[in-house]
């Protein structure tokens, strides 16, 4: 048997690639960067969630990737993308997270 503590996760593309596909807003390229300023490359399970969210469909994220695999980004990025696309221009009034539901009030 083979055991890996940090298994490889399939790449899902860069922010620019997702912007080019219309999955993320163009403004996302200036937001989603690592501490050195390099554009983030997302994992496949994240981009699958972004694509579903961009169609405004519901989804449940379950993955066996463990802690630190980017599951939280799977719901945070679509929230930020929605604000970038549909924001009122007056800022975000509230973002709440309770019992697997995320609500965004613009």
Features:
single chain; 106 residues; alpha+beta; two-stranded antiparallel ribbon; two-stranded antiparallel sheet; 4 strands
Structure commentary:
This protein has 4 helices and 4 strands. It starts with 10 loop residues before the first strand and ends with a strand. Helix 3 (44-54) runs parallel beside helix 4 (73-86). The longest helix has 14 residues, at 73-86. Strand 3 (94-98) and strand 4 form a beta hairpin. It is α+β, with helices and mostly antiparallel strands and 106 residues long. The chain has a two-stranded antiparallel sheet. It has a two-stranded antiparallel ribbon with strand order 3-4.
C-alpha Rg, in Å? 15 Å
Q: Overall 3D geometry? A: globular
Instruction: For the record, give the distance between the C-alpha atoms at the N and C termini, rounded to a whole number.
Output: 51 Å
The strand line-up of the biggest sheet is 1-2
Which bin fits the share of residues in helices? 25-40%
Number of helices: 4
Structural class: alpha+beta
Tell me the series of helices and strands, N- to C-terminal: EHHEHHEE
Sheet-strand content, in percent, reads 15-25%
* Low-confidence regions: 98-106
Arithmetic mean pLDDT: 78
- Largest sheet descriptor: 2 strands, antiparallel
Care to count the β-strands? Answer: 4
């Amino acid at each position: 048997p083979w055991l890996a503590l940090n298994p490889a996760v399939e790449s899902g593309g860069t922010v620019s690639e997702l912007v080019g596909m219309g999955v993320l807003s163009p403004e996302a390229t200036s937001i989603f960067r690592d501490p050195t300023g390099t554009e983030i490359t997302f994992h496949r399970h994240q981009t699958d969630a972004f694509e579903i969210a961009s169609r405004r469909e519901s989804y449940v994220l379950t993955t066996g990737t463990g802690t630190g695999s980017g599951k939280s980004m799977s719901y945070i990025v679509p929230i930020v993308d929605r604000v970038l696309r549909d924001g009122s221009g007056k800022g975000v009034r509230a973002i709440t997270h309770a019992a697997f539901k995320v609500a965004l009030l613009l």
